[in-house]
Specification:
This protein has helices spanning 24-30, 40-46, 48-53, 57-72, 79-91, 93-100, 150-158, 160-165, and strands at 8-12, 21-22, 109-116, 120-130, 138-144. By secondary structure, the chain is an alpha+beta fold. Strands 2-1-5-4-3 form a 5-stranded antiparallel beta sheet. β4 and β5 (138-144) form a beta hairpin. α2 runs parallel beside α5 (79-91) and α5 (79-91) packs across α6 (93-100). The longest helix has 16 residues, at 57-72. This is MmyB-like transcription regulator ligand binding domain-containing protein. InterPro entries: MLTR_LBD. It comes from Streptomyces capitiformicae.
């Protein structure tokens, strides 16, 4: 299901944020590579390639932390949650400061604007979808918005020609 999505998709456990599965479009758009943590929360705060591509990083950081806190509030003693929390707090002073604000926000939609090094501006709406048959997992679906010809750019990135153009992600 995830691989057939024309937009970018990632499956994660809500408390740990570790990628269980992602499609090629997500890897291309967000710069996912073997040398990253494969944890969407830690990478959001520490990966220089992801961060350099994200125009809306500062705006979205507060929401990302508040949504992570909400997802984990039902399981504060979960070891996976505690491990991720300790890692990201140690790796990112920005996360640690936002965490101390104690904001909580239910998972929902986030607008993301990214500067892709090959196709330029991408405007996406990120939606967190619960999986009733697997409540321990969520699907994060990034839907192209009408702006910046995003759908056509994602289609090109998913093509054989586009995949060749993004074999080696570069910053900015």
């Amino acid at each position: 299901m995830v691989e057939r999505q024309p937009s970018t998709s990632v499956i994660t456990p809500p408390a740990t944020c570790n990628f269980v599965l992602h499609n090629d479009a997500a890897a291309s758009v967000f710069g996912m590579r073997p040398d990253t943590t494969h944890n969407c929360l830690i990478d959001f705060f520490t990966d220089p390639i992801y961060r350099s591509r994200t125009r809306s990083w500062e705006k979205n950081a507060r929401t990302v932390v508040a949504q992570f806190r909400a997802a984990c509030s039902a399981m504060p003693d979960d070891e996976g949650f505690q491990h991720v929390l300790a890692r990201v707090k140690a790796a990112s002073p920005e996360f640690a400061a936002l965490w101390e604000e104690r904001d909580i926000e239910d998972a929902g939609q986030i607008r993301k604007e990214l500067d892709h090094p090959v196709v330029g501006l991408l405007c996406l709406e990120s939606s967190v979808l619960k999986m009733p048959v697997r409540p321990d997992l969520t699907i994060v679906l990034h839907t192209p918005l009408d702006e910046a010809n995003t759908a056509a750019k994602l289609e090109w990135l998913a093509s054989p020609e586009g995949r060749r153009g993004v074999l080696y992600p570069v910053a900015g």
